[in-house]
Structures are given as C-alpha cells and as structure tokens.
Amino acid sequence: MIEVKNLKKGFGDKTVINDVSVVMQAGKCNLIIGASGSGKTVFMKCLVGLFSPDSGEILYDGQNFTDMDDEARKEVRKQIGMLFQGSALFDSQTVEQNIMFPLNMFTKDSYQQKLKRVNEVLDRVNLKDVNKKFPAELSGGMKKRVGIARAIVLNPKYLFCDEPNSGLDPQTSLVIDKLINEITKEYNITTIINTHDMNSVMEIGDHIIYMHKGVKEWEGSNKEIIFSKNELLNEFIFASEFLKDAKDMRMLEQTGKIDNNRNMDDLIK
Ligand SMILES: Nc1ncnc2c1ncn2[C@@H]1O[C@H](COP(=O)(O)OP(=O)(O)O)[C@@H](O)[C@H]1O
Ligand SMILES: [Mg+2]
Fold this sequence. Notes:
The protein has 2 domains: 2-229, Rossmann fold (3-Layer(aba) Sandwich), CATH 3.40.50; 238-269, no CATH class. It has 11 helices and 10 strands. A 6-stranded mixed beta sheet has the order 6-7-8-3-9-10, sandwiched between helices. Strands 2-1-4-5 form a 4-stranded antiparallel beta sheet, with helices on one face. By secondary structure, the chain is an alpha/beta fold. InterPro entries: AAA+_ATPase, ABC_transporter-like_ATP-bd, ABC_transporter-like_CS, P-loop_NTPase.
C-alpha cells in the first residue's frame, strides 16, 4: 500500500501537483488518468523519488519515504519496479543483459542464479528464445514485455508504469494491460499506471484517480466512472462526440425510451 498525503510539487512559481492525497492498495491496478500535461508523470516521479516534493508525505506500507535516510530509501527503491514510457531498454544490450541489469545492481547472485531468474520472468511475460536478441529486433509489444520482465525481476512490491500503451496498437495494448493486471493480482503488487487510454481504464481500472491541472479531481472504480457526474471528468472520458452520443443512447435505452437497434444505426451513420 502506498499513501500519499498532501503532496505538492512545482517548478519555479508554477504549481504542478497541488495538494494530492490518495491511498493505493496492494493487489490493485491504480490508474492515474488525465489530459497531457495534467501532472501524471511528475506525480509518479515524486512517488519513486526522482523528484523531491515541495511538501507532503509518501508512505510505503507505513514507512515515510520522504524523510528516511539513504540506506532505508535504497531498501524501498529495491522493492520498486518501473516500466518507463517507450520501455527504455538499453539498445546495445541483449534482452538477457537488459533484464539482468537490476540483478547486477542489487544482488550478489551468481550468473547461473541470475540467468535462472531472467528465464523465469521471460516465461512469465510469455517470451521465448529472445535472450540473445537486441531490442531493435523486437516488435513494440515484445519490447514492452521485456520492460515488464525487467520491472518484475526483483519481485517488486510496487510497480510503476508510465503510459505502458504508448505506441502500441489497441489489441497489443489490451494484451499488455491484461499482463500487468495478472501480475499485479498474482504477486499482490501495488501497481500505479499513468494512462490516458480509456480502454485500459475500463479493462483494468480497479482504482482510478483523475488528475486535472495537478489536482485530484475524482477517484473511483471503472464501474463508477461511467456514471460519474463530475463535469471535468466527463469532458475527459467522453472527449469524442461519438462516445458522448453513445452515452446518451445508453441512458435512453436503459430507461426504455428508445429502440436501441434503430438508434445505434443513426449514431454510426
Ligand atoms: N522538469 C520539469 N521542469 C519544469 N516543468 C516541468 C518539468 N517536468 C514537467 N514539468 C511541467 O509539469 C506539467 C505536468 O507535466 P507531466 O507530469 O509530464 O504531465 P503528464 O504526464 O500528465 O502529461 C507540465 O506543464 C510540464 O511542462
Ligand atoms: Mg506523462
């Protein structure tokens, strides 16, 4: 579990994260959604310690990350897995070397032990016979899988994914979302995902936090989001006219006011 209390972060006189408090539970996909520039990446970077917040607290299972000493901080970092935007693999290293990197950094295991672990996580993300391949030889979806394998190689308690679907087609995105969701549940990880992909929201959004200009504007589940009355949130999720119309149709159909087949035809025209 990660608890964020009254987090603030700005650059110069510009406030980017404005007094955000939120609790993110283990075994759940916690999605941070919001328009581009709303502060999702800055928020995530504060949580993992890449930015230091101006004020507020971040608690990792009760431990205050904001004021702990370097040694304790390193211990928490060891339990954090990160999937960066665009996977951020080392181009000049093979898949095996990429995934071994965190093991080299944080363990004193032998090569054989490390190799065993690399193969376990590769198997978990359904990749075979790619150990000696270089990132350039892989498809976008495969690179993401390698990124996920690297992120989970140290058995993290916390997993951060910044826009895991960027650059992927909708079908591959769904596969990646499902994989992250399965891993989250299987290992009881507290997973935080930045996204603006509404498919992800509906598919894996156990807990959704909507950010607008650095403020937490709404939070709830994927079951609640469609029926939210929050105007800013609605503008965001029903950004396309098609979806707005579809939502109205659903409402009317549910209340028996329209014949759904005929009106769906009108809508698609
Ligand atoms: N290192 C930085 N220095 C100054 N401003 C920054 C820095 N990083 C991000 N920002 C600003 O913070 C705001 C939020 O950015 P970001 O968190 O990247 O948005 P999102 O991830 O939601 O698209 C933007 O206005 C951006 O310009
Ligand atoms: Mg971002």
